[in-house]
Specification:
This protein is an alpha+beta fold. 15% of the residues lie in helices and 39% in strands. It is built from two helices and seven strands. Strands 1, 2, 3, 4, 5, 6 and 7 form a seven-stranded mixed sheet that branches. Strand 5 and strand 6 form a beta hairpin. It starts with 19 loop residues before the first strand and ends in a 5-residue tail after the last helix.
């Protein structure tokens, strides 16, 4: 997903396009972070945090935990809702297809071994010291969101 802003296509008469609220679960365990490789657009094939759209009537934390389990089979405990980022899904011609507002939820792992489920191709723990964004294709903002989460959830040596 791309965060650079430009004019969105006009909405049909009488219909206003609005961003879609979604969550991302930033899950830490020991000295590792849980990432998934997306199976579907936007960002198909990219590594990022498990997450997805918030269902009508569902709270942010509830949505983050539900999406986490659906995509990875992992359970976690919410620590904090800590930031939000814009994610702009663009077509090949540069036009804006969708605008998501991703609400990041810091979590601590409680149980489960990650496996790809729902819309993930892969799910895995990545050692924080060995995580190299130049060696893998990541969704926009993953490292920045991770750095913010680490301030909230300092890891034990």
């Amino acid at each position: 997903m791309n965060s650079s802003a430009s004019a969105a296509p006009a909405a049909p008469a009488g219909k206003v396009r609005r961003p879609v609220p979604a969550t991302i679960a930033v899950v830490l365990k020991d000295h590792a972070v849980l990432l998934v490789r997306r199976a579907n657009p936007p960002d198909a094939g990219y590594w990022g945090f498990p997450g997805g759209k918030i269902d009508f009537g569902e709270g942010i934390e509830e949505a983050a935990l539900r999406e986490l389990f659906e995509e990875t089979g992992v359970r976690a405990e919410v620590q904090s809702v800590f930031t939000a980022v814009d994610a702009l899904d663009r077509a090949d011609d540069g036009s804006l297809r969708q605008h998501y507002v991703l609400i990041a939820v810091a979590c601590r792992w409680t149980s489960g071994t990650p496996h790809a489920g729902d819309d993930a191709l892969e799910a895995a723990w990545f050692d924080l010291d060995a995580l190299d964004p130049s060696a893998m294709v990541m969704s926009f903002g993953v490292m920045d969101v991770l750095r913010r989460a680490l301030v909230l959830l300092p890891q034990q040596p």
